Every structure is written in structure tokens, then in C-alpha cells.
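Example for tutorial group B:
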């Protein structure tokens, strides 16, 4: 199936003083995508209000989520979302889950993004995205039909807040460390989930910083690029791909973006071939 790319240069979910680099990253990736198959979702310039929710910039995040859902509704082709911060997964995964109630989500990320407004240290939505998709977050952002924790695979995570670790101790989420992740482990986890399709969320900080430098919070001992590509291929070989997203690319300069784009385009290729 041919892909349709939804570019969402969202920065409002980030807690970084360099959040606007996420816009630069999304634009850099867009420059290498086929124009005829690319849709840009407009992102408001203003930060937005938290509306007393404990989530910074909630009003902007909600507006972007709604614009994503509208853009993706009825669109042809395999939907691939290009962020922006991890919050772009909110609309993308909600859209995919509407099509398949037995959707599995593989969350490739250095961080689990499992905080709530109460547990978050900074109120930035990027650290709450997956927990919100699971139905536990600000009511204005929680999807009507949350995804199921027993069909979530946390792949490559290695930087946890205490509250996230506590939640994972009792949640039926499968965790695959960078040391554990390979084609066999991802295939087995998906098979056991009983899912009928899979969404692949890829925050590029899941990669080791030696593989890709342009991220806001580099965490050592991450995945190698071949390891990530192998896992993507294995997941696609087992289940139909309901959608995918690439987020977290925050290059420090146009020259730095060019250095990293080769790796990102290899990820795009693994998702679309």
C-alpha cells in the first residue's frame, strides 16, 4: 500500500527550551518526502493554555489533535505521521484505533511517556502521551476509546521516572530493553497480544546517540539503526501495519539535520517498502 505522510510540526508538547528545533526537524524530513503524497497539518503559532489541567499548552494540543483526526479521516494510503514532539502520536493512534479495536502499539522510545498530570515533574505532554492513549490523562485529550495496555509493547525504553516505573510494575505492558529487542522478541510479544494490526510509534531518541544526534534528550545505550530496522520489518511481517509515526527529530542546525536524515530516511523506507 502506498503511504500518505502527515507532517505535524508540533512543538507544544515539549518541555525543552529548544522545542522549536522540532519544527525544523519535521520540515527537514518533509523536504525528502514525495510532495504529492504529503499533507501538512497546520500547527498554531501560539503556545496555548493549560486550562487548569496540569498539561502545559493543552488548548493548542487539543486543536492539533482535532486537526490531525480531520486530515486523516478517509485519507488514502498507509498513514505515516511525521512530528514534531511525541504528542503527535495522540491523534495518529486514535485514528488507527478507530479502525481496529484490537490494535497493538509498539512504542519505540527512550522514554515510556507514561506520566499523568499529577505525576509529571514539568507538565509537558510529551511525557504523558502513551498514558493518555491508555485512558489515564487530561480528560480533554483522552481518546473516546483508549488503547489496551495488554497490546502495548514498550521497545528500547531506558529512562524512567519513578512514577512510570511504579505504573509499569502493575500494568500488563510488555517491555523490551535495548538488550532484549530483536526480530524474535518483537514477533513473540505481538503474537501473544492477540492483536490484528499494529501501529509503530518511533521517537528517534530510541536510537543510540552515536547513531543519530539530533534529539532533545539523548540517552546512551540505545538501539542501533540495524536493530530498529530489523524490529520494524519483523512487526510488519507478522501483522498488517495500521499506521506509523516518526517524532522527536530536533537537529541543531541545517547541516546537522543533513547528517541525520540518512538514518531517518532508512526508517521511512522500512515502514513503506
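The residue assignment follows.
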Amino acid at each position: 500500500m502506498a503511504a500518505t505522510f502527515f507532517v505535524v510540526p508540533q512543538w507544544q508538547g515539549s518541555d525543552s527550551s529548544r522545542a522549536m528545533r522540532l519544527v525544523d526537524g519535521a520540515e527537514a524530513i518533509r523536504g525528502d518526502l514525495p510532495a504529492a503524497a504529503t499533507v501538512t497539518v497546520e500547527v498554531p503559532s501560539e503556545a496555548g493554555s493549560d486550562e487548569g489541567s496540569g498539561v502545559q499548552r493543552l488548548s493548542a494540543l487539543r486543536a492539533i489533535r482535532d486537526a490531525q483526526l480531520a486530515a486523516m479521516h478517509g485519507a488514502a494510503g498507509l498513514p505515516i505521521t511525521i512530528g514534531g514532539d511525541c504528542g503527535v502520536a495522540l491523534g495518529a493512534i486514535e485514528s488507527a484505533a478507530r479502525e481496529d479495536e484490537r490494535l497493538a502499539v509498539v512504542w519505540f522510545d527512550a522514554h515510556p511517556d507514561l506520566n499523568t498530570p499529577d505525576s509529571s515533574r514539568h507538565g509537558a505532554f510529551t511525557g504523558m502521551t502513551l498514558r493518555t492513549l491508555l485512558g489515564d490523562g487530561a480528560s480533554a485529550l483522552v481518546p473516546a476509546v483508549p488503547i489496551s495496555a495488554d497490546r502495548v509493547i514498550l521497545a528500547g525504553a531506558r529512562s524512567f521516572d519513578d512514577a512510570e516505573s511504579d505504573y509499569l510494575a502493575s500494568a500488563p505492558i510488555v517491555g523490551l530493553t535495548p538488550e532484549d529487542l530483536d526480530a524474535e522478541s518483537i514477533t513473540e510479544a505481538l503474537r501473544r497480544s492477540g492483536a490484528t494490526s499494529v501501529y509503530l510509534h518511533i521517537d528517534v531518541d530510541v536510537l543510540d546517540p552515536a547513531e543519530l544526534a539530533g534529539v532533545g534528550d539523548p540517552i546512551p545505550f540505545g538501539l542501533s539503526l540495524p536493530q530498529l530496522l530489523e524490529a520494524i520489518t519483523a512487526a510488519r511481517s507478522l501483522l498488517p501495519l495500521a499506521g506509523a509515526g516518526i517524532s522527536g527529530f530536533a537537529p541543531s542546525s541545517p547541516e546537522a539535520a543533513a547528517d541525520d536524515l540518512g538514518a531517518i530516511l532508512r526508517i521511512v523506507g522500512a515502514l513503506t517498502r
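Helices lie at 20-30, 58-72, 89-99, 129-133, 162-170, 183-193, 225-238, 254-272. Compare this with the pattern of hydrophobic and polar residues in the output above.
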